[in-house]
Queue: 2 jobs
Job 1
Amino acid sequence: MGEYRMFSSVTLDALPTGSRARIINVAAPGRWSYRLLQMGFVPGSIVEVIVNNGAGPVVVRVMGVTVSLGRGIARRILVEPLR
Amino acid sequence: MGDRGETREITVAVMGQPNVGKSTLFNILTGRNIHVANWPGVTVEKHEGWRLYRGYSIHFVDLPGIYGLSASTLEEVIARNYLLSGKPDVVLVLVDSTIPERTMYLLIEVLELFPKTIIVFTKADLAHAHGVHINPSILSHRLGVPVVMVSSVTGLGFYELLDTIVKVYEGRVGRRDVLRVDYGELEAFIDGVVEAVEGSEVSKQYPVRWVSVRLLEGDSELLEKVRACCGEDVVRKVLGIRDEVIRIFHRRPEELFALKRFNYLNNLLSKAVVRVGRLGIHRFFDKLFLNTLYGPFISLAFLLLVFIIVFTLNTGFPLNIVFESMGLSELACFLEDYSLGSLMEYAIGFLGDLVGSAVPGNQEWLHSLVVDGVIGGVGAVLAFLPLIFLVSLFLAILEDSGIAPRIAVSLHILFKRIGLSGHAVFPIVLSLGCNVPGVIATRATPSFRERLRLITTLAFIPCQARLVVVLAFASAIRGVYGLAIVLLAYLVSFTVFAIINKLLLVYDVRRGYSEEPELLLELPPVHKPLPKVVWWLTWDSTKHFLKKAGSIIFLLSIIVWFLLYYTPALEPASSPSESIGALLASVFSPLLYPLGLDSRQAWMMTFALMVGFIAKEAVIGTLSIISGEEDMATALRGVIGLNDAQIASLTLFTILYVPCLATIAVVYMESRSWKTTLAVIALMMATAYIVSVLAYLISIAFT
């Protein structure tokens, strides 16, 4: 893709509970890519991790809505941790 | 206007993202005057309703809840094709007042396609509580689209909405043209695609700008249409423009378009929506259910609680057993006698006596038909009424309160391996008490294939009735082996359930139905369920059962009655052993020979098992009648003369062989396919047979 990272980035599944991050990119389009965009997972959106226990779904809050993501999907979302 | 008393029809499409309160509003708008069918050619439900208002007959069509208008889900394609079909006159797009920025995305996509749209803000009563203040006139002015604030709880905005529908239909308010969002640097590329498809079939069927934007987004459905009408060259050209965007901006076009739409939205709402402080959001339930360590336990405990309440109210089980073993026999009996199921049984018995005494005494066959056949059949259906009602009630409460999806998410990881999602847990837990509400509960499962797999395999979960039979049989086996066979029976059932689900999953994946269990799920805020909504959900479910399953159960009951009360010569049989059913049993009894049974033993067991088709508990009763012994141990060992190995393998056979009549009725009701229903029966028969014969051979080899 050619985009180089100027800032620290990590995938959403690695963020601990309670942390906040800004979405950089949703890598590798899959079945869910359109749905993710429609639900507000767009570059620049702020997400807040409500539950992430290392296994099982990751629960985040985005645009005021609570969403549960499978780990596979969370692994494909590149984010920049805030604070 | 309608003159000469004609009512003109306005067709209104109702759209909204999931969880915005669409179905509640739809119910109110139509006054519950609803008809349910399927969208043509697919398994997605179509809800339509009607209401007369100011000389118009308003025809409401509920479109599936969708987040946007892409081609990634069947529901979205159905919705956008309906918008383009020319059938709707007016479109309502519902927006959640408490989260307008997220839920209005759909509105933008709709307005780019359909101008005669009304924005409906739902949950207006909650907006203030969430610190959200919406100025509808500013928004309306900026978009040129009427805006109505409604509240399904308070009734706010209801007539205003109906009036606005009429006004838009009559052309007095609203947009005349579609919304044109300025996509900035992407405009040049959109023009490129427009040029590529201009003049083609596709540009005639769809608005050109709209279809070009979609093609640039990589819309699979529309790309196929272009390929079909214009050939591979045009497709390659369009995809080339798409690749150029990716090359220049390092982002896929759909990401950029989504961004631009959200920016447009934020711009729009910044003037029309004011946020005053933020309410402390209740994360309690999320922390509780969704914690990986104890979340699943809490979920299961919760479900167990619901299970105990529902089934105890219905027949006293399982609390009656608990009390019995604690020595509180009186309390146990009280629970049983005053349970809703017992009361219903009493009422049916009373009705039977009443009707029976009204039939002239000399007509034996008529008396039997009316009392045993008809009332018996009706009774079979009504016997389920308390259970179905209670289960529907609790499921509705769990669904409307927002707890259900949290339970599904917390247990998801358990079921993933066999191709089921967390939604499978309700049906499974309920099936432990009775398969009938279990099968009905599969309705909450969003994935159609998963639902079908569940419906097919749920009957393998041993229900309360089967437990009764298993316990009775086990009492005939000496010592600790009796207990072992009960545990083994459950173990085998669950293992078979898991294996067959895994096999069906593999089959589905091979066939290309590779739908993974829910991986992306919105969790609506946990809130106190609205009694009105809970009642609607409960009543709809119960009514559906009575009408659909009820008629099948009744019909099958009559048939079974006939088979057991008439001889092959079509005369009333003096005892069941002379009935047509008995004859059928002797035809099928050789199937049990591999278990080492002789013809007499085989006949008795086959007959009892055939009667077990009606209701599993009937197996015990039938064996008692045929053998003349009340006690199962004596009946099986003494009178029929079976040995341990045979009793053990027959126990396994009984727990697996066929779902009861009522379960078959609901399997048909939920799957709407005879093929599936027969497949379930065949699958269970085959499995039961193989397992029991294997068990017999194994136990022979070890003794």
Note: The longest strand of chain A covers residues 20-26.
Job 2
Amino acid sequence: MSAAEVETQPPSDLELAQQSAAGDTSAFEQLYRRHFRRVYALCFRMTSNPTEAEDLTQDVFTHLFKKIGSFRGESAFTTWLHRLTVNQVLMHFRRRSARPEFTTPEGETPVQIVTGTANPNRMPIVDRIALERAITQLPPGYRTVFVLHDVEGNDHAEIADILGVSQGTSKSQLHKARLKLRQILRQQAA
Amino acid sequence: MDCAKYLELLSDYRDGALDQDMRALVQTHLSDCLPCDGIFQDLESIVNTAIIMRSETLAISFPDENVIWQRLNLTKQIIH
């Protein structure tokens, strides 16, 4: 690598984080612009609401600005920011959950497992728009695990780490989320 | 095992998380049981659509990042 190439290397996330922690707002702005779309996309997928996603994105970066000094580079910055974003969205769900909702003591909406019969009870062909609409109707716990696993592509170990639950809980929530989605999609088509 | 027990295993089966013996049991059941196989196909369809969503980030209509950045600056002033 030539000296010129070294000079033009963009600063790493860790370098920008350290500069931000020292009060360099232009470094923080670079971090913001580098990760804005990723954060917004995750917020949008978890809420399915553009206005909430915008507000949450703002909250995430506000929180990030306050916490940036605690990033030590032990994990990838994207992983750290991902966790921070999910936690921010979950806090938002908790604040919103003052609304009455039918949940079990564990905070889950009971899933009525509809046993399939022959083809008449099969779900209609699912498209992205129908699935997005169905995801909005999932209880927050199911929605979070489904989005993190099936949409975002995290594995159960990562989800367990992000959410502070066991991998077994993550697997169980994912299965219930998929069954619940099937139920919702069938009802939508009825 | 009855159908309810097999239903509990469908996500693990789909995600390749079952051991070989259990996987074979589920596979055999699905080939014999049309309702359970129907549910499995539905779950498969849901997951496959979610995977398509993963690759469609471009389909998201992103807000103007400059506007949110400006709002962020205002927020920071309040914090300070």
Note: Chain A touches chain B through 45 residues (CB under 8 Å).
